[in-house]
Amino acid sequence: MRAKGKTRRLMSLGLCGAALAAALAAPAAHATPGERHGPARGPAWTPTDTGTDARFRGLAAVSSRTAWLAGSKGTVLRTTDGGRHWRDVSPPGAADAELEFRDIEAFDARRAVALAIGEGEASRVLRTDDGGATWTESFRNADARAFYDCLTFFDSRHGLAMSDPVDGRFRILSTADGGRSWDVLPSAGMPQAQAGEAGFAASGQCLVSAGPKDVWLATGGAATARVLHSGDRGLTWTATASPVPAGDPARGVFGLAFRDRSHGIAVGGDYRADQASPRASAVTSDGGRHWQPSQAPPAAYRSGVAWLPHSRSAALAVGPTGTDLTTDGGRTWRTVDTGSYDTVDCTADGSCWAAGEKGRAAHTP
Predict the structure, then answer these.
(1) Cβ atoms of residues 282 and 232 within 8 Å
(2) Which tens digits make up the pLDDT trace of 353-362?
């Protein structure tokens, strides 16, 4: 089961985190002109041809061979051969309905749950059990005040989705049957939202889980960028201020990744291209009760982050201006690629995938 930021068992054919970090930081000696991006010591991203110009902010990396993409124009793609071919498995009518898919969670090559975002009925959840050949809509938002941003799964049955505040509190949906049905959880255990506070549907990482019950929610747009944590699958929450700058609708924490229930990384900044993003990352070692700013954060806004497979210290962060690598748990970062990506995810068998604008998708060998 894929869960963003979730530690996975070592598989015999997978690269360990240290080896993959070394590969990402090493020169791409076999690259041909136009295949790689950025400085000479760039990551070993291998671009793939998706055959579309949709923008992909939803990414579910299952293995080195299988991944799902979800994006604009109602587009959902799937590969089962390491990105050599992408199959268009978009839900029928999604393009005509102008659905904006911003998150997707996949259990394997056949089962996936996708989230479309927007006000009112634009927010929907769809599920497939046959590799995208057919889809079933399992939730359509009927509350004009709600706007769903992200979803996550703890296992193949239990998952959550989150909406921007309704009546002053973030709204949480829960499923116990793999996304086939959803219920709104009581709001009594949710702290009051700040004025203007919301989540960012930028990378499918504003709601992430680790282990059977822990989940974190990233916010921005208000005076303080916060990270909310629940240890009981969304029934009760605590909110902690992060050092990532906020104070503007365009600023805050955009993405989270937890390698276990204690160690996490937050990335974000200001998504406007003409604005600087100082202090755009932070780290925690106590499950989000306290956050410390990175000593050397990424140089620009980053929307997505993922721990490298089986590593206790290496992670990637991505954004429109590049990819950054940390090898010390998020305390210091260095840019290793200048290609534009919105989201990133890594797999148990030792690969990482990234996706973004203009149909861009890539993976590590």
Answers:
(1) no
(2) 999 999 999 9
CA distance 186 to 261: 24
Cβ within 8 Å of residue 32, ≥6 positions away: none
Residue 184 in tokens: 């709104």
Binned at pLDDT 50, 70 and 90, residue 36 comes out as: very low
Tell me, rounded to whole angstroms, the distance of Cα 14 from its chain centroid.
22
Residue 163 and residue 198: Cα distance in Å, rounded?
A: 8
User: Which phi and psi angles does 200 have, rounded to 5°?
Assistant: -110, 120
Q: What percentage of the chain has pLDDT greater than the value 90?
A: 87
Buried b vs exposed e over 118-131: b needs ≥16 C-beta within 10 Å?
beeebbbbbbbeeb
Task: Tell me how far apart the alpha carbons of residues 344 and 215 are, in angstroms, rounded to a whole number.
Answer: 19
pLDDT at 25 over 80: no
Is residue 258 a contact partner of residue 211, using CB atoms and an 8 Å limit?
Answer: no
Q: 100 and 79 in contact (C-beta within 8 Å)?
A: no
State the pTM of this model: 0.90
